[in-house]
Amino acid sequence: VQLQASGGGLVQAGGSLRLSCAASGRTFSNNGMGWFRRAPGKGREFVASISWRGDRSDYADSVKGRFTISRDNAKNTVTLQMNSLKPEDTAVYYCARAIGSWSYASSSQYNYWGQGTQVTVSS
Predict the structure, then answer these.
(1) In angstroms, rounded to a whole number, what is the distance separating the alpha carbons of residues 25 and 5?
(2) What percentage of the chain carries pLDDT values higher than 90?
(3) Which of 32, 39, 63, 115 lies in disulfide reach of 67, CB 3.0 to 4.6 Å?
(4) Are 83 and 16 in contact (CB under 8 A)?
């Protein structure tokens, strides 16, 4: 499975970005998917996850109410809509495919990772 994340960029605080993750190779329609991020000088942090059917999603407290994760299994894509962005959202964002089919917050539950896309939010 190859995961390609895109949609990052530079945006002012309060703005929006839409990240996409496209999967190729073996499909992910039976797997949970997640987004994680790594800010400068910090460890990898869970952002959001979604079950294979899309009927369960979870969010980090820091993004709850601002970010929305969704998926289109027919198109092998997962999307992270990010609204009301804050400078502390600045990070490299990674999409990942879970080993199982549920929604997982732990990075240990993921076995395929994309290359990351940079999101920078200016104040």
Answers:
(1) 15
(2) 94
(3) 63
(4) yes
Residue written as tokens 């999101």? Answer: 119
The predicted-structure confidence for 99-118, as pLDDT tens digits, reads as follows 999 999 999 999 999 999 99
**What gap in Å lies between CA 55 and CA 32, rounded to an integer?**
11
Rg of the chain in Å (alpha carbons): 13
Contact status, residue 20 vs residue 48, Cβ threshold 8 Å: no
81 close to 16: Cβ distance less than 8 angstroms: yes
Q: In the structure, what pLDDT confidence band is assigned to residue 120 with cuts at 50, 70 and 90? A: very high
CA dihedral 92, 119, 65, 104 (to 10 degrees): -20
- The DSSP string of 40-60 is TTS-EEEEEEE-TTSS-EEE-
Q: Is 19:9 a contact under the CB 8 Å cutoff?
A: no
